[in-house]
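PROTOCOL LOG
Step 1. Enter all chains and additional molecules of the complex.
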Amino acid sequence: MSDRTGARVIELENLAYSYGGGELLSDVSLKLAPGSFHFLTGPSGAGKTTFLKLCYGALVPTSGFVRIFDRDVRDMSRDDVAQIRRRIGVVHQDCQFLDHLPLYENVALPLTVAGFDVAGEAENLRDLLAWCGLEPRANALPPQLSGGERQRAALARAVILSPDVVLADEPTGNVDWEMSQRLLTLLVELNRMGKTVLIATHDLGLIRAAKQQVQARVLRISNRRLQLAGADL
Amino acid sequence: MKQLRKIRDFLSGDASADRVVPPSGQTAHLTLFASAVMAFLAVFALALSLAAGRLADKWSDELARASTVRISAPEDQMQAQTQAALRVLETTEGIASARALTAQEQQALLAPWFGQNVPVEALPVPQLIEVIETDAGYDGAGLRLRLSAEAPGAVLDDHTRWRRPLVQAAERLRLLAVMSILLISGAMAAIITLAANAALASNAQVIGVLRLVGAEDRYIANAFVRRFTLRSLAGALVGMGVGAIAILFLPSAATEIGFLTGLGFAGAEWFLPLVVPLVGAAVAYLATRRASLRVLGALT
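Step 2. Run joint prediction.
Step 3. Record the structure below.
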């Protein structure tokens, strides 16, 4: 499956990925255009998380190409990948926080590692936490947060460096319907700001709700291949 | 200058960067304790090395300039042969002075073996002549020939026979002490590497999160390296302090004769233990950096 438009932020070409002797993905081609909104669906174990990891350089394809911002991941050093990740915000299903740091420090972590003066960004940080509805919880430690708060905090951390792309892996997997709608609204807002959004989910209700707010393409991983999902979605 | 700035930046650090690695109690205590113990031992090894060096120099120096002529002759010829030997010695190039030991001095030399009240004059004790060389020294073989001609009972002992093994022993002792310092540094590096590996392994999730948000390996490694280096420096400072105090309270070399009482630092040597914590910190820095980059390189 491929997008024939010229500009792209992430491009996968004839990609295959094997792990432990089995092929997880095969002959996958895709171009994510700037400002596009994509959903990635498929059954559990289909390879959605692997697909996302390939998109942000955490994995290298067994064959084929992954180009991120026009650079082949095979040609990137580890430091190059680190630099690239500052332009790609990633939200994991399990969020992955540093449990010994309060929420605001976790959200500011991309600023810290990029060498920004976090104190100088305090106002922006407050605005971001307010946007996610987390300002009152700024000093809470991650284990003290609810599932929804953790997901919103992970989203805030993913976007704090104003990345070009936001990749979210089951961002609504651990939250109720109301919270998933709230998270979706935040992701749609990001897309309206020009960010490319790719959400891996098996929540068809979320996809339907999104399609009412934004022009989204739905991709499905089935039998190791990437397909454009049917119109029933 | 650039290196100094780098060291200063490394030591001053980045408060928020320091916080990304959670405090790890066990490895922190292990590093502190190991560094303190190693620094303590290193101070002793350093003192031993310096003392052995001083001893080697002293033996080498003092004994090298002193020789003895021993005259064994029948009682009626003793005086004549002594005078003959002294004349030979006085006219030998490379000898600064030569004098026959008095009966009291010879008695004092024998006292440790025979007691204080030995009538030396009643014993067939050889007459000893103390010879002090000039810096240039004398020709031993030539002197022996001349002595044998003028005073047949004279035997020249230039102390080489027993001076060499003593100096060698002191040199070996110094080498042993230097090797001990190297082994201590190696052991410290090994312990800190193990502690760093344990810390890195137990912080795999932290490393994963840092990479996820765009941290370079250098940044992650530095967070660990700085912590371990400063801990090692702190531990080594304590160990060095305790070691130096312990040496300070050792019996003084001046009070009794003997090698063990000479163990310690003299004058400006007291500044040398200050190098131990710096070396400890440098060892910790290199060991942790190597371990961190290796572990980070192996992690996907």
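Step 4. Note key features.
Chain B has two domains: 2-60+164-298, 73-152.
The beta strands of chain B are 66-71, 95-100, 127-133, 154-157.
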